[in-house]
Amino acid sequence: AQSVTQLDSQVPVFEEAPVELRCNYSSSVSVYLFWYVQYPNQGLQLLLKYLSGSTLVESINGFEAEFNKSQTSFHLRKPSVHISDTAEYFCAVSPTDSWGKLQFGAGTQVVVTP
Amino acid sequence: DTGVSQDPRHKITKRGQNVTFRCDPISEHNRLYWYRQTLGQGPEFLTYFQNEAQLEKSRLLSDRFSAERPKGSFSTLEIQRTEQGDSAMYLCASSPAPGGTEAFFGQGTRLTVV
Asked: CB of A90 within 8 Å of any CB in chain B?
């Protein structure tokens, strides 16, 4: 079984400031790691994923996440946020032999203010 | 490609009534998943299909819940004798198989049981 802990339920941040969303997981099997974003009144969208290889993965809109196997973490960062980054962010894992079956964290609400 | 489509977007029903939701996955996606999301929580896995075969069901899926994917395309999720605790967002996702590691989500059906 897997579990995902997102350490912050809400993160207020000023526009153009950096943000870090923390995610820790536990699993007895190998997993893939994901960050999904949910904008107000929209469905979940994949932000980035770690499958294998380089432990640092990047999204097209400036987010990056680093897989740390020893600390079982997959923290998400962005060096400078925009108002449009206001959303809920979910960390998720899925077993490598059962991909698509996702175990989500409780989510972190990011509120960006001017 | 129009993405994953769910219908209806909102449903209000009286306790004890039956409800049915529909999900149309991305065409040619073999795998289809149902999740449930309650307020303040991340989505929880309910069940998934590979083509028309239902391969796994969560313990969350009580006997009042049934899901089908009769022709390996769209899927339905039925809840019989609804209870107030069934109020939630029901999410559908699909992914290609084999080889697909990303689940694409629909916008969900919000169920309110009064």
From this structure: yes
